[in-house]
UniProtKB/TrEMBL annotation:
Record-given protein name: NADH dehydrogenase [ubiquinone] 1 beta subcomplex subunit 9
Complex 1 LYR protein domain ranges (all copies): 10-67
Bilayer topology: Peripheral membrane protein
InterPro entries found in the cross-reference section: Complex1_LYR_dom, Complex1_LYR_NDUFB9_LYRM3, NDUFB9
Record function comment: Accessory subunit of the mitochondrial membrane respiratory chain NADH dehydrogenase (Complex I), that is believed to be not involved in catalysis. Complex I functions in the transfer of electrons from NADH to the respiratory chain. The immediate electron acceptor for the enzyme is believed to be ubiquinone.
Subcellular location(s) of the protein: Mitochondrion inner membrane
GO terms of biological process kind: mitochondrial electron transport, NADH to ubiquinone
């Protein structure tokens, strides 16, 4: 592809987006590999284009096709934004604005491992 560097970058982004979006459509890894090869062949067929206008037309058609076939509920990695585990256990605020009652439910005079010195000796 002898187009502009912006077009080359858009092609790479489109290829990666299509491959990523393919995952929810396939039921197993072997199916994913087979479909990935078909998509790669479609991209490779247009690799030797030199006219920037033709590249732009083909790229826009590819982006439109991707939007048309995009999965309605794509897979989201659980710990990333939108995932089921995103911010499930957020860290405690460092400013101490939330106080914790560490002795909740303890009766007075009962032993707690936090009360022992950090020397490792237990008497």
């Amino acid at each position: 592809m002898a187009g502009t560097s912006q077009q080359a970058l858009r092609v790479v982004h489109l290829y990666r987006a299509v491959i990523r979006d393919l995952q929810p459509y396939t039921t197993n890894r072997w199916m994913w590999f087979a479909e990935k090869e078909k998509i790669r062949a479609r991209f490779e067929a247009n690799r030797n284009m030199t006219d920037p206008m033709q590249i732009e037309t083909t790229l826009r058609a590819g982006e439109a096709e991707f939007q048309k076939w995009r999965h309605p509920d794509p897979y989201t990695t659980p710990y990333l934004f939108g995932g089921s585990r995103y911010m499930r256990n957020p860290p405690m605020p460092a400013d101490g604005s939330i106080s914790m009652a560490f002795d909740f439910g303890r009766e007075a005079g009962t032993w707690d491992p936090r009360d022992t010195p950090a020397t490792g000796h237990h008497h």
